[in-house]
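User: I'm curious what two different proteins look like when written out as structure tokens. Can you demonstrate?

Assistant: Sure. I'll show them one after the other, since each token string lines up with its own sequence. Here's the first protein:
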Amino acid sequence: MTARALVVAAGSAGVIWGMHLGGGDASAVTCQASNGHEVQRIQGTSGCGARSGAGSTASAQETGGGTAVAVADRGGRATAINQQPGSSALAGATTGGTSYSITTGPKALSVAQARAGGYSVAVGGVGGQAYAGAPGVQCSGGFAAAADSTTGRVCLKYGSINLRN
């Protein structure tokens, strides 16, 4: 329980900190899709894509000169937010799952895959890679935090600190 609270707190702090950073020269692009629709946009060095199945919603926001992609199906809700150059946020959700994938630092990767009514959250900071999904969670690089409610797994990586359950 303590590890979960630590990951949530650190991830939230990383997201809040990242929201205050500038996105550089890249232009913001937003893609939103619901009930069987699909949207892709590319503007300068920024790109986003959102695809949804019936009864699902997908939202991707790219503000940093990288990529954000969200895909949802069978009642899922997926949100991907990239805020830094050279980074990618990928979110997928199915069967009533909810996923949030956020990158707050340059050269980051975050992947969240929710399923079976569960929640998955992945936050990639400076040079960090975060994964939350079916086999569990993985955090590596500079800063990364991930949690997956279906597997009950959480992790936090910050420099030499590497916590996981």
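Here's a second, unrelated protein for contrast:
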Amino acid sequence: MTITAPRADGRTIGLAHYASRAVLEHALAPHGVTFLQFVTLRLAFVADGPVGETALIDGVAGTVKADGAEVRRAIGDLTSAGLLTFEEPSGVRMTDAGRELYATAAAGTTAIADRLYAGISEEDRSTAGRVLALVTERADAELATLRK
């Protein structure tokens, strides 16, 4: 019996995204951070220093297609929790507690990703990566056109 693999389309991509995100959110819950907060922490972490608040908001909003107000709330929540701090004149910096939480949570999510991608060849992952990058580029262009 031959099983035909589903064709990659918005539905199959969405199913993979939502299933993976649900796993991620479950893994983040014990750390007391949401998906949006974790993405915000990641961008602050890779900045390795203060990042402009506007640049952080735009980066997170662009990454997850969230509203800027949602990202501002996430930054506020992370600041209240002592994971981010504001730095004059308009910068945001990750605190030591934020770095520690991010590193711990990222290690856990990396272990999960390793399990999810286990047994998938590098060739298949590269092909999927190229296709998904192209779809993302086209969707971003479409979204920009729709927002005009």
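A detail about the second structure: The chain is about 70% helix and 5% strand.
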